[in-house]
Amino acid sequence: MKPDRKTAAGLFVLALLAVLPPIFIWTGNPFYVDLATRLVILAIAATSLNLILGYGGMISFGHAAYVGLGAYAVGIPAYHELYGGFDAIASFSGSFQIPLAVAVCALFALVTGAICLRTKGVYFIMITMAFAQMVYYLFVSIEEYGADDGLVIDVRSELPGINLDRPLQLYYLAFVSLVLAIVIVRTIVNSRFGMVIQGAKGNDTRMKTMGFNTYIYRLTAYVISGAMAGYAGALLGNFTTFISPEMMDWTRSGELMFMVILGGAATTFGPLMGAAAFIVIEEVLSHVTIYWHLPFGLMLILVVLYVRGGIMGLIEGRWGRRR
Amino acid sequence: MKRTLTALVATAMMAVPATAAEIKIGFVTTLTTGAAVIGNDMKKAVELALDHLGGKAGDHTLTVIFGDDQFAPETGKQVTDKLVKQDNVDFVAGYIWSHVLLASRKSVLDAGKFLISANAGPSALAGKLCHENFFSTSWQNDQTPMAMGEVLNQRGVKSLYVMAPNYAAGKDMVAGVERTFKGEIVGKDLTKWGADAQLDFSAELAKAKASGADGLLVFYPGAAGGAFIKQYHQAGLKDILPLYTVFTVDALSLPRLQAAGLDSVIGSFTTQHWDPTLDNAANRRFVADFKAKYGSYPSFYAAQAYDAINLIASAVEAVDGDMSDKDAVRAALMAADYESVRGPYTYNTNHFPIQNFYLREVVVDDEGNWTTKVAGLVYENMKDPYYEECPLK
Amino acid sequence: MDTALFVIQLLNGLQLGLLLFLVASGLTLIFGILDFVNLAHGALYMLGAFICATLTMWTGSFVLSVILSLPVVGAIGFAIERLVARSLYTRDHLDQVLATFGLILVLDTLAHLIWGPEGMAIPLPAWLDGQIAVTETLVIPTYRLLIIATGLATAGGLFWLVNYTRLGMLIRAGASNRTMVAALGINIQLLFSLVFALGAVLAGLAGMLVAPITEASIGMGNNIIITAFVVIIVGGIGSMKGAFIAALMIGLIDTLGRSFLDDIFKLFMSTAAAETSAPAVSAMLIYIIMAAVLAVRPQGLFPPKVR
């Protein structure tokens, strides 16, 4: 195997993320730890989306719903533990909430995926969005959990040995989770299962004639992806200590898609690169002007039009030419 | 890649340690989306307040950093976090929206900073979630509609149809009018709110008309108010279903209604703790200078924002810029020792003002502009209905 | 339930449905013929409203401004096709969704910069500002009847255009076999630009019609575009008939849901619960219908015959 510039760049960013936050604290910039935490959590969500969107060709336009569901799976048990009612799920315990987030999202992905995967192309894009909108309006309607106003998560998940109220501990939990997410997706992609998924993206009929029930394979990938996004949502809920239906809006799903494309779809570190670039650009631009959506939108268009393969494509292309 | 790194390093170096003589105020409001019309008015009032103060409280410089909540609680919390952690402000003020304030409050209060609401007054913050470092320069959400309910009783209105946006303040408004209105509420609609708010009220207006109510009470702040009044006008409901509003007809919507020629709003009533015609020195100066500087009447949002900055300045001056003694700052805020544009007021145990509520009537001023004037006093020194639930004494 | 209220709500639903059709018809044309997902279609709806509001301020006449604004919006659509959309026809839907998502951000922010955040009202002439009393209890705002009339007339014109004109023939031919049309010596590039401009005009018209009711505001297109997508998906992408039927269906379901769902809910739940859950459930209703339609007919209700 020849030395891979993309992997080197990805590992470099990971290394930066591993060492920078304590430096931020040490130099009196705790806000940048927040920024890094958001970055890492969104990178997990983008990595999960990359599995189906990048490798599987399943363009889900409703991924933010899983992130939101995961966050509510933290917020709702905590709410009931604090204010009573619904004893069956009332709990502050992270070892209950986080599996709940994963399970709820896996189940939601299973049910909706079974329907969505019957459709193709733009119908698939739109039906995934429709299901996300349904979840959005469901939470808008549940008065008890704050409806449109959102739900303040008063107490973070309690985990053995980790205090999530400490920003650095929460950060490193998210960081380790990101590394694991990247490893898991890479392992899946390189397995026989992953080959079938990628084969079905290129030529579904061929995989079917080869005897693979691609529908089941794709559905499995869809469920894994949803569950991972739910986990990211559970972390996000713990990070923001606030969850509102707004986080499941279709524009949020669009942002996750953009992170994947910006970084480079179907690459190991692409979603991480995309999330990093997205967060940094958003932070810098919104600092400069309240009209930051203008340059941001232009950049989005230009990236789609001219930067094939996203940041990863650039890294690869640049080095390729020099050789 | 390299750019990412440079950006991170560059931003990391931007932090500047706060000097003792510089008091920083974060001001969170809405500067984008249609609701920015409110945020911009508050921003103007803040800048006018700083002009009047010469940018100083005693010897200490006041610096205001604005944050845009984009009309979304989650974004509001993010910008609040940034103001608290990165800019290390001493006070966070502003907040138009109750849900944004509720989402952001922990970020400010847990960091030991002072939180001053210049508009939103959700019931929770007046009751169970009240906090020693939280103060309001506006009102509790229920109070204005309570005053309106009282007015309706006086006018012999027996049945009422209520419409409000579906968010924390909308629900408080409905609860408020239910508290004092003695007649029957024959129907209510809570409509979608936020950046993609529902703006066509045809279905709801048809229902309201069919309900046969004596009156229609609505709460539609900002741009939605103009759209609502317009459709009410087009539906020809003026003589069938008289309109009563809270926080809907204001200095922001009136010029637009005037431009559109919707004169059915003239002579209509609203209730409020403040009006541009309130006769006190601070208010005369505020209204005259605001009109001179910006060419329009200030809205009540502007009045509250102006008061918020002056309240903070009075406290900073009282403690001589020493923000380390939280108890002293709190006591100084509690004293409300400044020239409020609403006239003097005191703070209740839950840090909401005890103040008068007036009936305001829409009139045409000497220059032909549509504005409001005080048409009567509804409540004198009114306390909000939640203060007894607040554990603070 | 009283009849007058029901009739009024039916008309309100019809009005919403026709506005949706104006947006969705352009979307489905562009989609069906160019195979292009245009999320920014809603921005043209917004631009229509703002341009018409500005012209009304200058000319003082709403009707004249609508007539003047239509070619302006068409020209903007033409320009967008040449500058952005054209490069995306050969790309996959994902790229199209993202690029047009970026276009929304750009156009919304431009509108904010040009017209300010507060939006713009459009005053109506006196003859449109009143009401028409059909019976004693049945009083309808004149302007809403005008919207319905304009919507129906435009729909009729569009059917005529697509089914009985040379341009319509080319459009239909282009939708079913692009290379064939090009081989016949038709300037397919120009045809595409014209289709795009036509879609822009239709969306812009919808925006102009709605602005006197809701005012022109930043981001107003983002609310309707998702619903318009639901319409064309339910109707079957590329089908004008499908878009029309689905638009009316969704408009009626949405309006009737908003008006009567709480009464229906009150039959089996508490008043308070009904009043709060009904609006959200009626908002979910159209997505539930869409998912149900796609679960049964993955190509929508009226998929075009030849693809």
UniProtKB/TrEMBL annotation, chain A:
Phylogenetic lineage: Bacteria, Pseudomonadati, Pseudomonadota, Alphaproteobacteria, Rhodobacterales
Record-annotated membrane-spanning stretches: 35-53, 60-78, 98-117, 122-139, 170-189, 215-236, 256-281, 293-315
Signal sequence annotation: none
Keyword vocabulary terms for this entry: Cell membrane, Membrane, Transmembrane, Transmembrane helix
A molecular-function term among this protein's GO annotations: branched-chain amino acid transmembrane transporter activity
GO cellular component: plasma membrane
Localization of this protein: Cell membrane
This protein's name: Branched-chain amino acid transport system permease protein
TrEMBL record, chain B:
One of the GO BP terms on file: amino acid transport
Gene3D superfamilies: 3.40.50.2300
PANTHER family: LEUCINE-SPECIFIC-BINDING PROTEIN, PERIPLASMIC BINDING PROTEIN OF ABC TRANSPORTER FOR NATURAL AMINO ACIDS
Short name of one Pfam family: Peripla_BP_6
Keyword Transport on entry: yes
Keywords, in A-Z order: Amino-acid transport, Signal, Transport
Entries under InterPro entries matching the protein: BCAA_transport (IPR051010), Leu-bd (IPR028081), Peripla_BP_I (IPR028082)
Keyword Signal: yes
Coiled coil: none
Similarity section: Belongs to the leucine-binding protein family.
Native species: Meinhardsimonia xiamenensis
Protein name: Branched-chain amino acid transport system substrate-binding protein
Secretion signal span: 1-20
Residue span(s) of domain Leucine-binding protein: 22-363
Automatic annotation (TrEMBL), chain C:
Presence of keyword RNA-binding: no
Cellular component aspect of the GO annotation: plasma membrane
Record localization: Cell membrane
Matching CDD domains: TM_PBP1_LivH_like
InterPro entries attached to this UniProt entry: ABC_transp_permease, BCAA_transport_permease
Pfam families hit by this protein: BPD_transp_2
Transmembrane portions of the chain: 6-31, 43-60, 66-85, 97-115, 143-162, 183-210, 216-235, 242-260, 280-297
GO molecular function annotation: transmembrane transporter activity
Keywords: Amino-acid transport, Cell membrane, Membrane, Transmembrane, Transmembrane helix, Transport
GO terms classed as biological process: amino acid transport
Membrane topology annotation: Multi-pass membrane protein
Family named by the database record: Belongs to the binding-protein-dependent transport system permease family. LivHM subfamily.
Protein name according to UniProt: Branched-chain amino acid transport system permease protein
Organism: Meinhardsimonia xiamenensis
